[in-house]
Amino acid sequence: MTIAPTSDRQPQDTLTGSQWRAALPWLIAFALLLALPFVFRSSSAITVMNQMAITVIFALSYNMLLGQGGMLSFGHAVYMGLGGFFAVHVMNTLLVPLPLLPLFGGLFGLIFAIIVGAFSTRRAGTVFAMISLGVGELVAASSIIIVSFFGGEAGVKGDRTEAPAFLGINFASQTQVYYLIAAWMFLSALAMYLFTRTPAGRMANAVRDNEERAEFLGYSQRTVRFMSFCAAGFFAGIAGALIAINFEILTEENLNLTSSGVILLVTFLGGVGFFIGPIVGAVAFTLLQSVLSLQTDLWQLYVGLLFLLAVMFFPGGLTGVLAMHGPAWRHGKLGLLTVPYLKLTAVVVTGILAAACFLEILFHVRHASVGENTMRLFKLTIDTHAVWPWLATGGVALICLALANRLAPDVKAAWDAANLPAKGSARR
Amino acid sequence: MSIPAVELTGVHKSFGKAKIICGVDLSVAPGERHAIIGPNGAGKSTLFNLITGRFAPTQGTIRLHGEEIQGRPPYEINRRGLSRSFQITNIFPQLSVFENVRCALLWPMGLRYSFWHLVSGQSELNARADDILERINLAGRRNVPAGLLAYAEQRALEIGITIAGGAEVIMLDEPTAGMSHSETDAIVALIRQVTEGKTLIMVEHDMGVVFNLADRISVLVYGQIVASDTPEAVRANAKVQEAYLGAALEAAE
Ligand SMILES: Nc1ncnc2c1ncn2[C@@H]1O[C@H](COP(=O)(O)OP(=O)(O)O)[C@@H](O)[C@H]1O
Ligand SMILES: [Mg+2]
């Protein structure tokens, strides 16, 4: 048979060697989590980090469905929200020490996932997506109706400091809350990673790739999906309980379709093809959100545009883009790309800023009160009713677009050159 | 006589109004190598799909080791010791070649839906998967996503996945289709080796392969079995000559 030479077979690692290599990222992450509050001390920074960590768990749990299991859900926030509401109620009983609370949130998410998964995981694809949407809508609607559990529009409040003290800690300080959330994030991420390395997790990938073939290897596609679905519900519930701890309030916003949509966006932006994709997505998105939302009312528009660009040009998300450069890096040819990339980046960033300014001016004209003709943009005061700001921002944006088009062939050529000796190296 | 490994009685299958399988009776003894031949569109793949649970028969019974299996889902039939390959390659394209084979070993090795075992810790599992890769000559492509393999490599992987679990009954749908002579020889040698002491049912167009490998041959024409006998008897059968084999044999010579 004409089959590639056996010489490029990867040597089997020694057990301890490969175990070390597998453990290293986790050790680094552990150290990083310990150190972060010493680097970013401000209370607003810790707020952002807490938010980030919760989003990381939620996004990873979402990717158990989307990336690992091939299930597109439009209603995953339901499991986070329900876990969170339940956790608030448990917190308000004042019986459970705070560090154990996420377990309750997780169990509640799991139970609801078992109920829904029992009928929604029969098929992937459109049917699954539609059921997730329906359940999402249903739960969001009931949250307004079942006031005793969901607290109506006001939501359900709690006070974490009243929970029984744990080793003398009462979680009044934000840093204590940070470490609690970070610990749960670390454990959850580790557990979700290990799940992917079990028979159930491996078969989740197999069913995603080819559900029919999996059935001819002894596995019911439905059961395989059901297990991933339940696990995802459990970890989403943990994220919900951490919301309860961090914000001390849960509202309909934590389980509605918007939240479900956002986590799809976050996960996709980070990249569904790799385990760390959702982590990258959650970190990037939370940063973007907290920075942009302070600067502009239009931040959701920008995030939406970013999502569109990702879907159209980088379906592998941020991690996909990074991974694309693996072969060039292994060949030591990444240097070839530096100059073309710098040029392109300069043009694209300028173009985006110009386009954003154009949008901001437009927004200002439409929404500012009558007679208020000036706005501040990047420390400049601009008369939005004059012609030149429109011409300048629009013109620069268009010129940058044209320039980017001109630069594209150069980048393509550099890319091809950097990937030239790519034979037989298409490894994962 | 012992209980047949696979036994079909009065099996019919219609898709809407089209009657594709019209009353098939077939018995394959344990340890037998049985070939099913017939013109394109005769219903050979459909027959495979009925036996392996992809479709339920419209009528009739199908027994595996004496137990009725018609209408059961594929995974249950597979767990009872029947494994099949597909005429159109059916693999896990994003998983590595190694992962493809390992997935085929998980259930037979008793790991089932476990979420408390790590696959990396299962040394026998991994050793067996690597062993299969050696045997299908794909060890050098171990970590390549299966979707990137060349056609012939994918065919080899398809067979590797099918035989990996060591099923008692192995069904191969046109295993050598589209392969060169040397590739065919290698695959036939492999099939002979791995089906030693097992029951093999295969659909095959290459008459050289059929007469080389099969203990018995069934000829399927328009959804009916017109002959089911030893290779010599089938070769001499006038009905077969007329319906199909004459032309096919001439082509093979
Ligand atoms: N799922 C299906 N639905 C409708 N018709 C089918 C289906 N599968 C097969 N057929 C028809 O059954 C006939 C036999 O097909 P097949 O079993 O693939 O033949 P063979 O494998 O002998 O070449 C063909 O005419 C095909 O169109
Ligand atoms: Mg066929």
- Give a short account of the largest sheet of chain A: 2 strands, antiparallel
Overall geometry of chain B comes to globular
The quaternary state of the protein chains shown equals heterodimer
Q: How many strands, which pairing sense, and closed or not: the largest β-sheet of chain B?
A: 6 strands, mixed
Short description:
The complex is a heterodimer of chains A (428) and B (253). Chain A is mainly α and 428 residues long. Chain A has helices spanning 15-39, 43-65, 77-92, 101-120, 125-145, 147-150, 174-196, 199-209, 211-215, 221-247, 257-270, 277-295, 299-313, 317-324, 326-330, 335-367, 388-418; strands at 156-157, 249-250, 374-377, 380-383.
Question: What would you say this structure looks like, in words?
Answer:
The complex is a heterodimer of chains A (428) and B (253). Chain A is an all-alpha fold and 428 residues long. Helix content of chain A is 70%, strand content 3%. Chain A folds into 2 domains: 29-313, Orthogonal Bundle (ABC transporter involved in vitamin B12 uptake, BtuC), CATH 1.10.3470; 326-418, no CATH class. Chain A has helices spanning 15-39, 43-65, 77-92, 101-120, 125-145, 147-150, 174-196, 199-209, 211-215, 221-247, 257-270, 277-295, 299-313, 317-324, 326-330, 335-367, 388-418, and strands spanning 156-157, 249-250, 374-377, 380-383. In chain A, a hairpin with a 2-residue loop joins strand 3 and strand 4 (380-383). Chain A is globular. Chain A starts with 14 loop residues before the first helix and ends in a 10-residue tail after the last helix. The model of chain A is unreliable at 1-13 and 424-428 (pLDDT under 50). Chain B is α/β, with parallel strands linked by helices. Chain B has 2 domains: 1-80 and 191-253, 3-Layer(aba) Sandwich (Rossmann fold); 82-166, Rossmann fold. Chain B is 37% helix and 23% strand. In chain B, the strands form 2 sheets. In chain B, strands 6-7-8-3-9-10 form a 6-stranded mixed sheet, with helices on both faces. Chain B has a 4-stranded antiparallel sheet with strand order 2-1-4-5, covered by helices on one side. In chain B, a hairpin with a 2-residue loop joins strand 1 and strand 2 (18-28). In chain B, helix 3 packs across helix 4 (123-135) and helix 3 runs parallel beside helix 5. The mean pLDDT of chain B is 93. The complex binds adenosine-5'-diphosphate and magnesium ion. Adenosine-5'-diphosphate binds next to helix 1 of chain B.
